[in-house]
Amino acid sequence: MNYALMMERHPNVRYRESLQKLARIELEVSLGAIHTPAELVGWQKVGGLSLLMIRSEEPLEEEELDVLRHQSALMALFELKEDTLTPLMEGRGYYFPEDMAAILKYKGKTNETFTDFMVHTALMVSDFKNASEPLTLIDPMCGRGTALFAALRRGHNALGVDVDKKDIQELDHFVKRYLTFHGCKHQRLEENCTVPSRKGVRKITYRVSDTAEHYKAKDVRTLSAVLGDARDLAYYGVKHAHGIVCDLPYGVQHGGESRMPLGKLLAQVLPVWRRVLISGGVMALAFNRYTLKREELEGLVRDAGFSVLAGPLSDCEHWVEQAVMRDVVFAKA
To answer: Which residues of 206-226 are buried (b: 16+ CB within 10 A; e: fewer)?
Structure first.
């Protein structure tokens, strides 16, 4: 049996090639969640369309097809017989609309498809890829929340942390407007977290459901945002997370008041993140190879007690723009 995946086409041709590379990597690791042996064939032209192909000896079961339907950049899934493409998108669904991650535009925003690639890939290589219950994902340097929205879209709980007051305020305002506009049942809570030697660490939490019926039944998800420091992650009310997804700052400095170099900051935060990430969980860190070497980051990750994942995940380097050659390190707790 042959199956074909049609992926999003980014208007920038060079960046489109980057997304095609990442789509292949994501699909390759996702096939590990499929019980029927399936082979990744690669990109092929079918009727003038560029499609990502896989082949299996037996037809894939519905649950296995659902794994394919939830690839981050997928537009359509087909079964290919001779020259005929038959759509297989029935049943595909997400907990929350995908537009939540796409609407908010601002300078320096990470592409939402790439962010979803990190979220989905991290879950696919974790020990929780087949979990039936909602998981908890954290972005310790969340900016305005793209990774949080990607996690909520997939039906998971999310916590974001950032030192930038403007970013947290904009995240809060956007979520409030979005949920109100779409008539989503929700509750907004605000509290202060007790952090040693720090004052007034503010945490905002939205409790929300995909339907009014689920909300009434208390079947809810949480989206939280903390105006705080990534080094204090253990004090923000989440004892254990199943995944950490973070697009590290692309400049040479970060860290709020201290403005320390990124490498030094990571040496401080990574051991804290390791204590929060439950055994079997996976951390995905995107970074700019022009300002941080992969070998240095992998060393810091290992020193903090993580195991760096190899195989296809060791080659996520891709071009973004003239000043950014992005890469991703995936590491398991």
So the answer is: bbbbbeeeebeeeebbbbbbb
